[in-house]
Amino acid sequence: MSNSLSSEIEAIAKRARNASLNLCSSTTAEKNEALQAIARGLESNRRLLKEENEKDLAKAEENGLSSAMVDRLRLTHERIDGMVKGLRQLIELPDPVGTTLDSKARPNGLEINKVRVPIGVIGIIYESRPNVTIDCAGLCLKSGNASILRGGKEAKHSNLALASIISDALKASPLPDDAVQLIPTVDREALNHLLTMDQYVHCIIPRGGEGLIRFVAENSRVPVIKHYKGVCNLFVDASADLKMAEEIAVSSKCGRPGVCNAIENLIVDASIAESFLPSVAKKLQEHGCELRVDEKAADILEGFECKIATQEDFAEEFLDLRLAIKVVDSLGEAIAFINQFGSGHSESILTSNKKRAETFLNDVDASSVYWNASTRFTDGFEFGLGAEIGISTDRLHARGPMGLEELCTYKYQIIGNGQWK
Amino acid sequence: MSNSLSSEIEAIAKRARNASLNLCSSTTAEKNEALQAIARGLESNRRLLKEENEKDLAKAEENGLSSAMVDRLRLTHERIDGMVKGLRQLIELPDPVGTTLDSKARPNGLEINKVRVPIGVIGIIYESRPNVTIDCAGLCLKSGNASILRGGKEAKHSNLALASIISDALKASPLPDDAVQLIPTVDREALNHLLTMDQYVHCIIPRGGEGLIRFVAENSRVPVIKHYKGVCNLFVDASADLKMAEEIAVSSKCGRPGVCNAIENLIVDASIAESFLPSVAKKLQEHGCELRVDEKAADILEGFECKIATQEDFAEEFLDLRLAIKVVDSLGEAIAFINQFGSGHSESILTSNKKRAETFLNDVDASSVYWNASTRFTDGFEFGLGAEIGISTDRLHARGPMGLEELCTYKYQIIGNGQWK
Questions:
Q1: Most A-contacting residue of B405, B413, B417 (CB-CB within 10 A), to test interface
Q2: pTM
Q3: What ipTM was reported for this prediction?
Q4: Under CATH, what is the fold of the domain B2-226+402-415?
């Protein structure tokens, strides 16, 4: 049984590799034609999609999934429209493939061109939201990559229906039929096999909870691009504009507390803590935000309902209306705190002092470092990438929001006239 | 025992991470000062180096290592001069850190700068040649990375002596003492621990035989950049200049058969095979090159001493005066052959037909693809990188020769004036 599953996954991986060898030279028009066909397929199969989605929803309720989870699973007309709109936006974006990134003539007459090309075969491992199937298939197609999709078991029927729409669209398009494949088996064994296929699969992107991502990172022989979590920090320096600081602190925690670029820790310079903390704490609590504070902050916030923060609190992604507060004596202490407890995602300093801002921007080790702005802007659309397949807190290949260009690598094309020594 | 080794390796990794947080903001002058100090240390410690190296050489002969292996281990005055020269060349190279790679102003007024920064902590795993210790330490320092070096047991005494010279130089320099650390234990367990330290170590670069590299790739939780082997192909198209083809075929096999960018397979279009093969085969055999040929080539080379090539031969890096020959009926067959048997390193087409050359350059999936030149040019110095830490046949992060820029990643620095939505 396990042997036949292993050969099934290997066959999928091989087909993806073969498809990728054709996809890499597909024209922009051909890729856009396929994206258009998928969009039309979604529009004309709404009933099928909703029927299949109903099966997943029924199962989810049967299994007692939380209403938040059930909501993420649901395919509404609006969400189908959202997928269609996403595909049509991809069509409008420039094709990343074929751009010459660098070009030089060597003294021996060789002309060396560094040209952007697709990575090859990309495996996407994700959890409940079925729209990820369309978003990721579209991003991989537009960037000339073959994709292997492995969705969560909660969304099995929805994903199979979406995959059959993609498959029909590919068959009617000039692109290879195997350019997008969904792994039909949702058990963990199938995933384990996929993670060993480094001869055919070139990159794995896991999207979901920290548990899934850690499992993939620890078990994959294929290179993984990921972010585990977003423990983002906001540092209010001695010379910050305190009105700006209050607006940014409250909005970047309470705006959408469940997203990875929301802040988890508010770090405040001791010299302004007394004037700043009580008023910001009041605003935060008015938004229903729970506070976990260090001893110094607790002294200042006497009379407020606060818990004392543990070391674990400072390293936790709350994903909730909860904020940890730390008072520091210096910029250096703030930077050291962030480099210890942050997850390398997004960090911000609020200050009117340019020199201190520059020290922060240079010495804080994270994908995105801000001066006088909210961490909430770490996002492919906000960065002007036009689309986003994820955010990387890794350092190799891509860091921060990843769009179409980050789904590409490069090759060197060298032109000579007979050089051999 | 294993527990204490594990804590020793973790302590080394933590110190490297802390050093990297300082190194990333070191100035070019500070880094060059440290490189200069290492160079001076090598020059003034020649006797120590040769004494310690003698211990390794004696052990190597005791253990019956081949004379080629013993030769690779040996530190001659010339080789010490080579290391010193390498460090002084690094000093002359531009600092890759701090370059703004991209900059944009967003409609909301945010200014987003993509800035080149060091990767962080790099582990280098290598085998016998002790000069790798200095080369890699120097490259990592110049690019602002902390390094953890793990050399082979054959070179243990030489590497410890080199590491103590580096350590003394760092202590006398403005850089952190732990910017370069050698793992003193050479057993496999120490390596296993290092490969799990993904919270402190950001990239592993293995250099050595395919066995070592596969071990590292299969067991590392830290991202690895590598090339397993160089199975490079040369395709002589129907419209090639046959004199050029002969020169390139002979030189790119026989010039230095043991290097990764030498060719292993000569692919010849059937239409010119009869006029080309006998004369090139004669030249190759005059250089002592053994031939392993397919059936079609065997017919044409009747009377020559050849073996029939197996499928395994076409996928093998001979590292020796041995060449496989394949006759194909079309450009498409040549490309499919290369994409199946090549290792993604370097591939070349010789042709006077521009359209066919472009098809080859686009459709062959390798780090470096050539038109009318030898594959032997895949090298950091030949590509003008000024230095080389290795060649990658991977697709993520870096592909082909890797120099100082490839030892860097980037971060986004975002400047606002209070934006929060």
A1: B413
A2: 0.94
A3: 0.95
A4: Aldehyde Dehydrogenase; Chain A, domain 1 (3.40.605)
